[in-house]
Write a structure and sequence with these properties.
Blueprint lengths: L1 H22 L10 E3 L5 E2 L4 E3 L3 E3 L4 E3 L5 E3 L3 E3 L4 E3 L26 E3 L4 E2 L4 E2 L4 E2 L4 E2 L4 E2 L7 E4 L4 E5 L3 H11 L8 H9 L4
């Protein structure tokens, strides 16, 4: 029985990897070292742009219809994460919601996941949200508004629990990883990230 289990595991992993390679070209764009587990996952492929060094765990649901989802570089997305870039038009009297196909302005908004992000398992991110770089989203969080860079957020709805590092540590992190033209300014770090902390 042990050997049958090993053989089954080998073939299921091989099948998953083959399926991943076959499905990757369906994304709008993707970088190098982009890996995802297609098992139980659902994507709106043509509306999703993915950077390099990305892992998307099993059971992911990433959907946008008339908007886009952009995922930066060096992003880890845990299992069973849902990202929805759209909403239903529920304002029409005398029509079943199922039958309403037209959208109101603001029903579909892009979602942006910047670089160096870790999204825990079971997170839900809704339309119009930007997750700032260097942030961590705790498992089970419901994110309905933007997350400032280098924040740790959690809860339903998600709120900032703390800033990941102090101003000097963020500046050092930025200097080590980003070229000068891509770094956050000291003013942005101090005013928008650290000064607006809890």
């Amino acid at each position: 029985m042990y050997y049958l289990a090993r053989i089954y595991t080998f073939f299921s992993l091989a099948y998953g990897r083959l399926l991943m390679y076959l499905l990757r070209p369906l994304f709008r764009s993707y970088g190098r070292n982009f890996k995802f587990d297609p098992a139980g996952s659902s994507f709106s492929y043509s509306t999703i742009s993915v950077g390099s060094d990305i892992w998307i765990g099993p059971g992911a649901t990433l959907w946008t219809h008339d908007s886009s989802l952009t995922i930066g570089n060096k992003v880890l997305i845990g299992p069973n994460v849902t990202i929805m870039g759209g909403d239903h038009n529920t304002s029409q009297v005398g029509r079943f919601m199922y039958d309403v196909r037209d959208k109101k302005p603001g029903d579909d908004l892009p979602v942006v996941i910047e670089d160096d992000i870790w999204i825990g398992s079971g997170v839900t991110i809704l339309k119009g949200v930007t997750i700032g770089r260097g942030s961590l989203v705790a498992s089970g969080a419901l994110v309905i508004k933007d997350v400032p860079p280098y924040s740790i957020v959690g809860g339903v709805p998600a709120r900032r629990l703390k800033v990941r590092w102090n101003s000097e540590e963020i500046q050092r992190h930025e200097a080590l990883l980003y070229p000068p033209d891509k770094r956050l300014s000291v003013e942005t770090i101090e005013r928008d990230i650290c000064d607006n902390a809890l």
